[in-house]
Amino acid sequence: MLQELSIKNFAIIDHLDVAFKNGMTVLTGETGAGKSIIIDAVGLLAGGRGSANFVRTGTDKAIIQGSFIFPTGGTTYRVLDDLGIDHDDGSVILQREIHANGRNTCRVNGMLVNTSTLKRIGETAVDIHGQNEHQELMQPEKHLGMLDEFAGAKVAKLRENYGQIYRRYTQLQSTLENRRTNEKEWAQHLDMLTFQVNEIESANLQPGEEDKLVAERDRLDNYQRINDALQRSQMTLTGEETAPGVTDQLSSALQAMQGIADFDAAFKQISDSLETAYYALTDAVGAVSSQLDLLEWDEGRLDAIEQRLDVINQLKRKYGDSESQVLKYYDKIAAELKQMQATDEQADDLEEQVAAQETKLHEVGEQLSEARHHASEKLEKAIHAELADLYMAKTVFAVRFSRPKNEGLLSTGLDHVEFYLRTNPGEAMRPLAKIASGGELSRIMLALKTIFSESQGITSIIFDEVDTGVSGRVAQAIAEKISGIARESQVLCITHLPQVAAMADHHYFIAKKIVGERTETSLARLDSDARIDEIARMSAGTQVTKLALEHAHELLNLADETKKRQAKEK
Fold first, then answer.
1. Domains of the chain
2. What are the helix (H) ranges across 322-404?
3. pLDDT in tens, 121-163
4. Which one, of 428, 432, 403, lies nearest residue 418 by Cα?
5. pTM of the model
6. CA 32, 38, 39, 42: dihedral to nearest 10 degrees?
7. What is the DSSP letter of 69?
8. Predicted local distance difference test score (pLDDT) of residue 84
9. Sheet holding 430-431: strands in order across?
10. Which helix (H) or strand (E) holds 523?
């Protein structure tokens, strides 16, 4: 449920903080006071489309923040776990900033996320229905999804199975069609991949090989220079027949200092330093001698290195700027070649595979269709029961199935589904989208929401003036339906109907006023007396009479009795 909502610099709202509770909360006020603006703010927290137009004039950004709690093990927490977002304290804070330049910043529990991620989380937390939300009912392509949602786990499992087979079927069919229409291109591409794979394989390229070869080539190219330097170093260190080397001279100096080292600590330090230098120089002599022993000139090896480097450079010119890129390209084309060769081997029975997958699709599709038909019967009965409570007892609701003739197999199953309606006896059944009025759509949507409220797992449901176009006993019936939904989920409701307002557990009044030269929206929770005044105003209009106040008081008493009855029936 939504616990707290904070809005700053949003449209005509300067700063607004409100705490919500479970049950049914109504927001009322004059037209234009900003009721729907609050719902728009919640919609943005649920991942709705943002716009710089939402930012209050003269400010840099709008900030919206909502604090939510959800049932343990609920859908929202599973989504957060999938996304790696921490929720150890049991609460989730959604925050969104919309900047005047159009930039959006979204956070979930302090973690930066993109709008798509915010929407993925928000749609599990908040379900918003406004005056235009009935349009989902006006879109026949949405009806199949609504039926599947009602049908539950059995249909969901069959649809997933069907989807897996369908994806495999389309892959095979695409491969087959490509083979048929592009056989020449296929063969040419296969030959090219075979040549490239063989060329790279035969080169037996090794990571880091080029650097080692370049170093070895440079050593051979500079053989004479290296030999001269080593010879000169050895001669200087070891000496000649006519002159002692540095090593012998250092040895003499060491022996001299060792002879007087015991007479003074300074002499001892000099002796130790000479000894260290002597042994280091002796090691250097050994290293120079070893390098001279290893040094050899091999003109054949130099030619081999140049040829190998030429092979590597040719591969790099064709397939990548480095050895690693060449090898990466090799892995890619080797996998593609393997797949094409496998497809080539299977070419003879590819048509049989396509046919086999199509047969599987029809088998699972028929099972899915049967499960949907069974679910549609239950949905029709449930809708009729709900519509009867909403004074549409003579209305007939039906789920119609049809099989596409020229579209081929569908990704969702074998059937098209569309909702049909007959509002008056004696009339023909017609598509719901073509004959339902606004008031009828409101009630049908409310019937569906009542049926779905338990199964969806949504913890906060918002109705934005869905009662528009109704009055009298129908308004009372809608109020009772919304109150019934609030027993399963938190409900926030914007309404102009006193019957709906009276059924609420919590009542907020929204008003706008001029502060300085700016319009601001304020929100206040109404106590018992203030509720009576507001409901009377909703009933009577501008002139609140004593009779209107008595009627408001009666509506609240009747609402209390209705809620007690609902609790017993539950």
1. 2-131+437-567 (3.40.50.300), 152-368 (no CATH)
2. 323-345, 347-389
3. 888 888 777 655 555 667 888 889 889 888 888 898 999 999 9
4. 432
5. 0.59
6. 160
7. E
8. 86
9. 396-402, 416-422, 430-431
10. strand 518-525
